[in-house]
Amino acid sequence: MYQRILVPLENSPTDVHIVNHVRGLARHCGASVVFIHVADGWAARNIGHLTLRDSEEMRGDREYIERVASETTGAGLQAEAVLATGDPAKEIVDAATREKCDLIAMATHGHRLIGDMVLGSVANAVRHATSVPVLLVRAPSSRGDS
Question: Please, what are the domains in the chain?
Fold first, then answer.
């Protein structure tokens, strides 16, 4: 079914929902997992243009994504960590192609209407820009919705 699954992470509590879901899916399919976090702060978006060093935020993001990949490997699955910089949707779509992934699995917050317009939706942008299938797993909201 799937051989290589790309999993974008935010470095937020929402991540646990998609990580748990994908670990089960990867185990079922015998797939490897590529975790990606796209650092999109000012330093991250300008690191290439201005020859900047990793910011403290980027170092923390790198440690986080590598820890998630290591824990997944420790659970008996093949996993890698990728830290990208720039526009999250573009970097996710590009990584899916570059890493030869046949599924992108993302957590969503379940914002509605105004929330999506104000906050934007990386998942929405990704699904419109890629030909790779996209699995969206809605994380429970802070209000306790599921």
Answer: 4-138 (3.40.50.620)
Distance CA 77, CA 1 (A): 16
pTM of the model: 0.84
Query: Is the Cβ–Cβ distance between 96 and 4 less than 8 Å?
Result: no
**pLDDT for position 57:** 76
Q: Is the pLDDT of residue 12 over 80?
A: yes
Structural tokens at position 137: 């797993």
Helix axis angle, 88-98 relative to 122-129, nearest 10°?
40
The letter for the amino acid at 73 is: T
* Model pLDDT, residue 131: 96
How do residues 90-113 score in pLDDT, each as one tens digit?
Answer: 999 999 999 999 999 999 876 555
Going from the C-alpha of 145 to that of each of 12, 60, 110, 114, the distances in angstroms are 17, 30, 9, 18
d(CA 23, CA 32): 9
Helical residues (DSSP H) of the chain, grouped into ranges: 15-29, 42-50, 56-74, 88-98, 114-119, 122-129
